[in-house]
Design goal:
five-stranded parallel beta sheet, Rossmann fold, single chain, binds ligand PMT, alpha/beta, 34% helix, 2 domains
Length: 409
């Protein structure tokens, strides 16, 4: 099926005890870079709440055909056209019957009729129900129409009996839907910093910067898609958290430093995409600062350099820093690569038309000792995939050096 990097998947969830597995399925689909919109039938909501699935999908879940608010956003015909794949998991016997008979009596069945996208169903039901001639007849009708059947599996069932009718495991649904892929960073642990930091001036004000977190989150997502186990330490952002193993929210550079140092052990790769404040006010005011004076002076002290500290560890993980520059991009970035002892640095212009802070696109220059690669202006997601591709190559050279002591390359 589709090999596109960000397949759009409309996931239908119908009423079955296996509906709770939809949460893991959504997570696995998002790890593969898929965009997922979820539609639940009325019966599905008896098993799992729309709110739970919304939390993992990072998108509102739709349940009603005649929902004025939802229709005002993306109408159901638009939603049907949006999808590259329709996936129904779990598909109950009732839903299979309604599909087989071309019914359009709720949002999900209507979308199936309104969409030209391929339909895959993963049935889940009691084994007697699955083997019932009525269900098998309906399944055969759907197969004859080109519907892809994913499972079901045989085994112990929720009712205490055993037989064919179990929902295929979410990971296998994803593999059958999107194909198994090359996961070059499988088994690697990666820690990513992302977003800005905020340094308090007083209880209501802070010094911050323009980082949105988009670049860091995109790299975290691309690393996950490459098979890595990813943890993100993130400054405050307005983004939906990336679908990674864990996201640790922090606010200040000191908090980011503490979170990184707590979790860096056993990490193979460290990616510092966060825009960390180099300085913080020495003594933030415990009370809101009043405007009694025409001017006041702020004394700043240095924050720890998280990236440099990680790179100086023994043994150190493979370290990728970012360099945000407004002039002499390559020279400054090479200086940081050298001074901080990094394995690789991704340099980007900030403040100009070339991307950088709080935009959806970025242009980057990837540098390492003895090499470089230029990424022209492209979406941050695409740039993240290219960065991860280069990390994979450089990481292979890094581990070879560690294992065999070969010269830096
Ligand atoms: O978040 P977006 O809006 O998508 O924008 C993306 C970005 C522009 C923030 C990102 O691409 C980027 O360039 N991040 C690094 C920004 C930065 O702080 O650059 P720097 O040149 O000041 O720092 C160099 C490196 O040291 C960075 O990897 C930084 O994370 C790290 N650092 C800096 C200071 C510090 N105290 N600790 C650090 O770890």
């Amino acid at each position: 099926m589709s090999q596109t990097q960000h397949p759009r998947i409309l996931l239908g969830v119908s009423g079955s005890i296996a509906a709770y597995k939809a949460a893991e399925l959504i997570r696995r689909l998002r790890e593969r870079g898929a965009e997922v919109q979820v539609v639940m039938t009325a019966h599905a909501q008896a098993f799992i709440t729309p709110l739970s699935l919304q939390a993992v999908a990072g998108q509102p879940v739709r349940c009603e055909l005649f929902d004025r608010a939802a229709e005002a956003g993306m109408g159901h015909i638009e939603l049907a056209r949006w999808a590259d794949h329709l996936l129904i998991a779990p598909a109950s016997a009732n839903l299979i019957a309604r599909l087989a008979h071309g019914m359009a009596d709720d949002l999900l069945t209507t979308l199936v009729l309104a969409s030209a996208a391929p339909l895959a169903i993963a049935p889940a039901m009691n084994h007697q129900m699955w083997s019932h001639p009525a269900v098998q007849e309906n399944i055969n009708r759907l197969l004859a129409r080109g519907v892809h059947l994913l499972g079901p599996e045989s085994g112990d069932q929720a009712c205490g009996e055993s037989g064919a009718g179990r929902l295929l495991e979410p990971q296998r649904i994803v593999e059958q839907l999107l194909g198994s892929e090359h996961r070059p960073l499988a088994g690697r642990r990666v820690l990513v910093t992302a977003g800005p930091t905020r340094e308090a001036l007083d209880p209501v004000r802070f010094l911050g910067n323009r980082s949105s977190g988009k670049m860091g989150y995109a790299v975290a997502q691309a690393l996950t898609a490459a098979g890595a186990q990813v943890m993100v330490v993130s400054g405050p952002t307005a983004l939906t958290p990336p679908a990674v193993e864990r996201v640790i929210p922090v606010e200040t550079a000191l908090e980011m430093h503490a979170a990184v140092m707590e979790h860096i052990d056993h990490c193979d790769i460290f990616v510092a995409a966060a825009a960390v404040a180099d300085y913080r006010p020495q003594a933030p005011s415990p009370e809101k600062i009043k405007k009694h004076h025409h001017e006041f002076q702020l004394r700043m002290v240095r924050n720890p350099d998280i990236l440099a500290e990680v790179a100086a560890r023994h043994p150190a993980p493979f370290t990728l820093g970012f360099a945000a520059e407004t002039e002499a991009l390559e020279a400054h970035a090479r200086e940081k690569l050298q001074a901080k002892g990094l394995d690789m640095i991704a340099a980007n212009w900030v403040g100009g038309a070339q991307g950088g802070f709080d935009r959806d696109e970025n242009a980057l220059l990837l540098l390492w000792r003895g090499g470089q690669r230029e990424l022209p202006l492209m979406s941050k997601r695409q740039a993240a995939r290219e960065i991860v591709h280069t990390i994979t190559e450089r990481y292979a050279a890094f581990t070879a050096r560690q294992n065999f002591g070969s010269p830096p390359g």
